[in-house]
Design brief:
The complex is a heterodimer of chains A (361) and B (229). With 361 residues, chain A is of the alpha+beta class. Chain A contains eight helices and 19 strands. In chain A, strands 6-7-8-3-9-10 form a six-stranded mixed β-sheet, sandwiched between helices. By secondary structure, chain B is mainly α. In chain B, 76% of the residues lie in helices and 0% in strands. Chain B contains twelve helices and no strands. Chain B has helices at 5-38, 44-56, 59-70, 75-82, 92-116, 120-128, 133-144, 146-161, 165-170, 181-190, 194-218, 223-227. In chain B, helix 6 (120-128) packs across helix 7 and helix 10 (181-190) runs antiparallel to helix 11 (194-218). Classes of the chains: A alpha+beta (361), B mainly alpha (229). The A-B interface holds A 48, 51-53, 76-78, 80, 82-84, 86, 88, 90-95, 103-104, 107-109, 149-150, 153, 159 and B 119, 121-122, 124-133, 135, 139-140, 143-144, 146.
Chain lengths: 361, 229
């Protein structure tokens, strides 16, 4: 695994950090990797080390086989072919939005064509803000300008620290779609720090799980979900994602059909269209079970699925039901009482009811 | 009573000295202030103390040691003799050197405060956008420190105009060469020509008032940081 970005980081509390870090992580080339974990896990420190902003920490950073940082050498941040967007954006307060953007474009790397980054910059729409002074921008506007500025640097690696935290939901979708398109161009490696599981589930090809300064696990979202790593971090318990193909949007209701292993899920239509392959993230608490299809209910999505396992969630009240549709699995969280009343058994065919409003493509 | 030709010469000489000193100090104090603002070295405390010494020492002490150092037996005097330059005491160049030391803290401190106030995340952002350390300093830090430079310039200039003890020790009172306004006022008062002393003094009072007003007016946010020495 020499392709991509590799990090080994080992610090003790006395080395200028308040806690120890023990991270060994790999970020695959030209993929989106999410650095995921509770706050205080060390995610921002990891990004700063990769960016070259922590020469004081003993770390080994390797990019496509070349050493950027080790005990013998240190490539300073301005010579690393990356761009880093910090959580606050760190715009230059003495400059206008236009000057902030020019600062990056004047110092752009030339290796990757400018065109690869234009969909992302368009989605962020910094042009609307170009005449404003930085002091006049709202939190969301600052974030948009900061990401656009990083994109204008034309980096090989884009390091994003909670990039969408200040954006409203409407804005997030096109930015996520643009990041996916940037990834699909096959030239840019994206590292995405987030604690929003729906964002991570949607865009991350690879996950690195950080907890208490340690890299606990690494792999795809499905791998980490199956291994039980992700659910512990998610409010609302266990979750899963289903891959599907989106159909044409029903403009009358603002819903988009997604075909998941032959079953159809209706989702709130995203504002950007043209995404065909989607991953639908489903929290176990948003899924209920009925034996009958014909129950009158406000729930749109009823998927015929098979119970594969029943497991105790440990709180004495709820059970986790593992369900299968086609070759994909997801989960429902139900009370033990419901389980007895419905007399659920592994192998049984049931209808899983999923609230559309809880789904995000 | 209007100003005499000698008074005008003294005013002009004072302005020249303050201008040259402030210009040089803004350049020389910049790396020092940057280091003091950002370094974590254990030498920071003693260096800060040395920079601040002229604030607490009687100017005559400073002047006395400068006189000794620049005199024929002093290290600076030997150096200037060896270089083929005349001895510095009682010359304009000697005054410039004395003023540089005397006004140093008044220029370093506002710059140091201005540099320390720059959010390190902003310099980090500039670094990850491809700016080298020098580029970062010139295109980001200098712009953000502009109010600090304004305060440093005004304070350095005004403080140099007001010096007396150092000047008297190392400059004496040679008209057109070392006789500054403060010395001229002293001479007027000594010879009991109070009207002349008053005319010059009121010019200095007006100047100080205008300079400080400009400082408070133009840099409201920097006020406490820069004047609070």
């Amino acid at each position: 695994m020499t392709e991509g970005l590799r990090l080994q980081l080992n610090t003790r509390p006395d080395a200028g950090t308040t806690f120890s870090l023990d991270v060994d992580a790999h970020f695959p080339n030209t993929k989106i990797t999410a650095l995921f974990g509770p706050s205080g896990a060390g995610k921002t420190t990891v990004l700063k080390v990769l960016a070259g902003l922590r020469p004081d920490l003993s770390a080994t950073v390797e990019w496509r086989g070349a050493k950027w940082q080790s005990t013998e050498q240190f490539v300073p941040p301005h010579r690393r072919t990356l761009a880093y967007v910090s959580q606050q954006g760190a715009l230059f307060p003495s400059m206008s939005v236009a000057e902030n953007l020019q600062f990056a474009s004047r110092r752009a790397h030339q290796a990757i064509p400018e065109a690869e980054f234009s969909p992302l910059i368009d989605a962020l729409a910094p042009a609307e803000l170009i005449d404003k002074s930085v002091a006049m921008l709202s939190g969301g506007e600052r974030q948009r300008v900061a990401i656009a500025r990083a994109a204008l640097r034309r980096p090989e690696i884009l390091l994003l620290d909670e990039p969408l935290s200040a954006l409203d939901t409407e804005r997030r979708q096109p930015v996520l779609a643009a990041l996916e398109r940037l990834r699909d161009s096959g030239q840019v490696t994206i590292l995405y720090v987030s604690h929003a599981v729906d964002e991570v589930a949607r865009i991350a090809d690879h996950l690195v799980l950080l907890r208490n300064g340690k890299s606990e696990a690494e792999g795809t979202f499905a791998m980490l979900t199956d291994a039980g790593h992700v659910n512990a971090l998610v409010a609302g318990g266990r979750s899963a994602q289903l891959a599907g193909t989106a159909g044409d949007i029903d403009t009358r209701w603002g819903l988009m059909p997604v075909d998941v292993s032959g079953a159809t899920l209706w989702l709130p239509a995203p504002s950007s269209t043209g995404i065909r392959q989607v991953r639908v993230h489903i929290l176990a608490r948003d899924v209920s079970i009925s034996l009958d299809r014909t129950v009158a209910s406000s729930i749109l999505n009823r998927i015929r699925s098979t119970v594969t396992a029943l497991s105790d969630s440990g709180d004495g009240v709820t059970l986790l039901v593992s369900l299968r549709v086609g070759d994909q699995s997801f989960f429902a969280s139900i009370t033990r009482r419901s389980c007895v009343e419905l007399d659920l058994q592994p192998g049984q065919k049931v209808y899983a009811q999923i609230k559309s409003a809880a789904l995000l493509p | 009573m209007p100003l005499s030709l000698e008074d005008v010469t003294a005013l002009w000489l004072t302005a020249k000295l303050a201008g040259v000193t402030t210009g040089l100090l803004l350049v020389l104090a910049t790396p020092l202030a940057w280091w003091l603002a950002r370094s974590r070295s254990r030498w920071r405390a003693p260096v800060s103390a040395i920079v601040a010494l002229p604030l607490v020492l009687p100017p005559t002490v400073l002047g006395f040691y400068l006189l000794v150092a620049m005199g024929p037996a002093g290290p600076v005097g030997k150096l200037t003799t060896w270089l083929g330059i005349d001895l510095l005491p009682f010359t304009f160049s000697g005054l410039v050197i004395g003023s540089l030391i005397y006004s140093l803290p008044f220029v370093v401190q506002p710059l140091r405060n201005a540099f320390a106030a720059i959010d390190p995340d902003i310099l980090d952002a500039a670094a990850t956008l491809g700016a080298s350390p020098l580029d970062r300093f010139c295109s980001v830090a200098l712009r953000l420190a502009r109010p600090g430079y304004l305060a440093a310039g005004v304070l350095g200039f005004a403080h140099t105009v007001g010096e007396f003890g150092v000047v008297l020790m190392i400059g004496g009172s040679i008209p057109g060469e070392t006789r500054l306004v403060s010395v001229q006022i002293y001479d007027h008062a000594e010879s009991l020509s109070f009207a002349s002393a008053h005319a010059l003094s009121i010019v200095l009072v007006m100047f100080a008032f205008i300079a400080l007003s400009a400082l408070y007016w133009l840099g409201p946010r920097q006020r406490t940081a820069s004047v609070g020495l």
